[in-house]
Design brief:
Strands 1-2-3-4-5 form a five-stranded mixed beta sheet, sandwiched between helices. It contains five helices and five strands. About 35% of the residues lie in helices and about 20% in strands. The site of coenzyme A (COA) has 17 residues, from strand 4, helix 4 and helix 5.
Length: about 160
């Protein structure tokens, strides 16, 4: 499916995220090979152990607060999103956090990132929260543009770090 069709499908998508040809669903272990390949193509690092561990924690959905979703078209994984509801982290009321999002470069700008984000936000709403947050690298203009286009604004928290 090309970007134009994806965009049209995403815009007409019902809230479930199911679209003609593109289906957003929970990841299974059989998807991991394609997920790892997308991540490796984008980041240049193949992190097999990391992804199996992440799937163990988020993909099996032992808690209804954790989400590892993939967008699939004819058995081809086109993108994924990972997040969870975190309760009272640093005193904040429970809210949804997105901490992994990737769309295959060949199908970007077709609405797939929007579809993935909307689908995980539906899951967060069902889990009872009314806010979504994410963290991104300060110099990642692409991801910043995407999240701003989805209505996310600067949060009333800041990240701190030091060398160990
Ligand atoms: C960010 C990303 C998920 C967007 O996916 P996508 O399927 O292209 O997103 P959409 O088509 O739904 O785009 C929605 C909006 O985001 C913004 N956007 C997306 N790509 C953009 C770009 N290259 N430049 C500027 N704005 C962009 C636009 O406002 C766009 O709306 P428009 O097409 O009507 O202008 C995708 O580019 C990606 O996977 N990037 C790499 C992410 C990454 O670095 N992940 C690792 C860290 S978690």
């Amino acid at each position: 499916m090309d970007s134009t069709k994806l965009r049209a499908a995403a815009k007409s998508a019902p809230e479930s995220g199911a679209t003609t040809g593109v289906h957003v669903r929970a990841a299974t272990s059989a998807d991991l090979g394609q997920v790892i390949a997308i991540d490796a193509a984008v980041t240049g690092i193949e992190k097999v152990d990391y992804w199996y561990e992440l799937f163990h924690r988020y993909g099996t959905r032992t808690l209804k607060q954790r989400f590892f979703l993939v967008a699939e078209d004819n058995s081809e994984i086109l993108g994924f999103i990972i997040g969870e509801v975190r309760d009272w982290e640093f005193g904040s009321p429970p809210c949804g956090w997105v901490f992994g999002l990737n769309v295959k470069p060949s199908v970007r700008l077709g609405g797939l990132g929007t579809l993935l984000l909307e689908t995980i936000c539906d899951g967060f709403r069902r889990a009872g929260v009314d806010k979504v947050r994410t963290l991104l690298a300060r110099d990642n203009g692409l991801v910043m543009s995407f999240f701003r286009s989805q209505g996310l604004m600067a949060a009333p928290v800041i990240a701190l770090e030091r060398n160990l």
